[in-house]
Every structure is written in structure tokens, then in C-alpha cells.
Amino acid sequence: MTTPVTGVGTSPAVTPTATTSLQRTDQMGKDTFLQLLVAQMRYQDPGNPTSTTEFMSQTATFTQVEKLEEIASQNASLLALQRSLSAGALVGHSVSWTAEDGTTRTGTVSSVRFAGDEPSAVIGGAEVPLGRLTEISLPS
Question: Which InterPro entries does the record match to this protein (predicted)?
Fold first, then answer.
């Protein structure tokens, strides 16, 4: 049996739960791209306007950005569905997990709850986030 490693001080190590999305504020989205395109058109030199091919290239790039955002959204939905299906398959299985106090516990999954971002396995009446599970095995 392994012993959990504690951090500085007396608090036990805590296993963080996994996340499914990441919000980055340092990246430009389609709104920023569209604002730049409109500003470029507004302030272009009337004596030397933007060529049609350059404008079409920029419009195609904008369309690509929109489609990539749509694909990312669909992937997030598929990931959520896959996690739900995987969680449902745990019912009746024996699992081990790291508890809040850093100890390893075992039990049998009686049901799964889908409240919030991450499904939770219900083991002996307690809800355990799937990110805390360390081992899954068939019941004995």
C-alpha cells in the first residue's frame, strides 16, 4: 500500500479534479478578427484599395475561425457525452479513490450523479468525483 505524500506543513496531499475546458484570455477570437477586418476596410487608402483576392483570403480566414470554434464546441459536447457514458458503465464496479484526507479508499459504485461539470460516482452514499478514482475493477 502506498503512503500519500504531504506538502509543506501538516495538510495532506489532495488530488485535484480534472477539468474539461480552458478559458484563455490571451487569444483572439472571431470577434477580434472581424473588428480588425472592418477597421482595415474603413481606413484603407482610397487611391490604393485592398485587392479582391486579399479581401477574399481574409474572409476565408474568418470563415475558418468560425468553423474551428464550432468544431471545438462540438468536441466539448462529445467529450461530455463520452464522460457520461463512461461514468454510467462504472455502476456495480469496485473502485479505489483518494479521499479528501489523502487516504486511499475502496468501495462499489451504486449509482452515478450528473450534477455539475463532472459526473460523480456514488459509493456507500458518498459522492466521489470521477477525477479522484485511481483504480476500477470488476466486483468480486
Answer: FlgD (IPR005648)
Structural element, H or E, at residue 97: strand 94-98
- Could you say which DSSP state residue 2 is in? -
Q: Are 120 and 111 in contact (CB under 8 A)?
A: no
- C-alpha cell recorded at residue 118: 463532472
Amino acid occupying residue 30: K
Model pLDDT for residues 65-90, shown as the tens digit of each residue: 889 989 999 998 898 888 888 888 88
Domains recognised in the chain with CATH numbers = 54-137 (2.30.30.100)
Residue with cell 479534479: 17
The widest CA-to-CA distance across the chain, in whole angstroms, is 81
Tell me which amino acid residue 137 is.
S
Nearest to 16 by CA among 108, 134, 112, 132: 132
